[in-house]
Records
---
Amino acid sequence: MIRTIALVTPGGDAPGMNPAIRAVVRYAIFHGLKVKGIEHGFEGLIHGDIIEMGLKSVSGIINRGGTILKTIRSRDFEKKRNRLIAYENLKREHVDALVVIGGDGSLRGASVIAKETSLPVIHIPASIDNDIPCTEETIGFDTAVNTALDAIDKIRDTASSHERIFIVEVMGREAGYLALEVGLTAGAEIILIPEHKMSLGEVCKKLREGINRGKMSSIIVVAEGFGKASDIAKVVSRSLKVEVRVSVLGYIQRGGAPTAGSRRLALVLGARAVSLLLKGDKNKMVGMEEGKIVATDFDKVLRSRKNIDFGDYRLAEKLSK
Ligand code: F6P
């Protein structure tokens, strides 16, 4: 029987983690459960950084980016002996089930905990990279897209004033989901993602064709997984003999008040995670597909691949002419 659940937010933070924490805590307490928060991610689990959580612990956080439980990217958790210490800490705290909120690294950690202990574990996908399969969207992605969009709309003003080419680098780790969504919705002239090989020669040819059509300013959105904006800028300005400026958006994409979209996803997935545990379900990742909440076995998620929507890529190309 589940009386006490624990909650942890390992790995990179994402805007929307706090609304998810709020949903898990409040839904659990509403159903008579106790909640313990694990601070500093899996590292905190090894060190026993475990706190009691109540309704008050999560008031005033629905609009805050980041995670009130703090996080650390922990390599120590990869060592079995450290995990055994972590499991002892969970036992000492009488934890009956675990909710893990985070990206692909935290999903792998959640799956290992589920395999090595008899603890029921539910994972809630939160990452600005949106690179986790078995869910159309991860918590924080919509907010990161809107943050980047807001920046690029501002950059477009100065790009068109100075008739310059701007190369804007966005996060996304090895994947291009963030760059594609930002590029499409920003009306970027060129989108460079790791999933679609494009030579810098092709990039220069496209820009030259634009200039010949009278397009004196352009925005190129590049995923960090494709390459460095500064390197691309050197090649483009040498080849086209035009002014090229670079903007690396960096960590602003990880913060900020979560959008309605990220909050809604966080609230419904947070509540569903607890209701699954109450029903005796376990070792699944909750997600959203075709507007419906889904729960997928860890093994299936870890075996699955997420594909880039090349339909969006081709649409962006057609609309950028
Ligand atoms: O996974 C989220 C993310 O922001 C990636 O987009 C980026 O590559 C990475 O984390 C940065 O990692 P760190 O927070 O360790 O600098």
---
Amino acid sequence: MRRVTLTQFLIEQQRAGRTTPELRLLIEVVARAVKAISVNVSKGALAGVLGEAGTDNVQGEAQKKLDVIANEILLQANEWGGHLAAMASEEVEEVHQIPFDYPKGGFLLLFDPLDGSSNIDVNISVGTIFSVLRNPEGEGEPTEQNFLQPGREQVAAGYALYGPSTQLILTVGDGVHGFTLDREMGSFIYTHPFMTVPNETQEFAINASNARHWEPPVQRYVGELQAGKTGPRGKDFNMRWVASMVADVHRILTRGGIFMYPLDEKCRDQGGKLRLMYEANPMAMIIEQAGGAATTGRERIMDLQPTKLHQRVPVVLGSAAEVERVTKYHLEG
Ligand code: FBP
């Protein structure tokens, strides 16, 4: 089979009018940053990048060294790239402006530089999640308000998975496409065309240690799954929880399933655990583009009107039939 690189794939998308030269070039800058992060992640203790950084992020969470390294790599690469009006990162409280002496572009980039931080020191897969929006017309430096657009306004979304191999999963609104990093060539090779989420599944992902905090609809749904053949679902379900959203979502994109980080008594005050702008929205776009569904348990995630850059939301995504069932249980009250 002809090996197609990410650059060739994006140029073909551009020739077919499915993306613009500016967006293609932006995605290539993000891909280059992902390669640099992949090198750091794979070196681990050899490069002294494991462990705490000794600082906290905007969410008050202890930062890992790799959180800081990955964030710096993405900021520096995209500041210089010339395709952005501004950026937003899980690790940075305010909007990150492009230095005055660098060229600017028409896009806004949002990212979680290293997702699944709690797994870094135990060598379990982690990732990077990103979302691209258009910067609304207007004078002056972009503000937080410029970013507060519903997920359906995203022009691209993707994630990198730093696992046994490094993969880049991408959508520009025409299906979901997967690329695998060829370390010898230093290029992402097109390996997974038009990834789709199977509608039916027998696999679910949720942090069951939170069960006592769950709302009744989730108690009911998970209870039925655990009842398996003997219960109303009449079939057995298996559970998986990597605690790296990227890894759990990638499994669902590959073989189906449902991922839930619902609203529970533990995270109710925060509105949820996962962040809307650079975790839930990009993953929702990818899952929907792959034929799945993504809700808060009550509403379509990509229809939510954001109110804050770092706001958190409940997340239920994956195989459409299961997401619809969980949402129905919530709406039945
Ligand atoms: P960050 O690591 O980017 O903060 O992401 C949050 C996250 O690690 C998700 O990747 C994962 O799905 C979830 O938190 C795991 O939560 P828990 O520790 O409750 O299992």
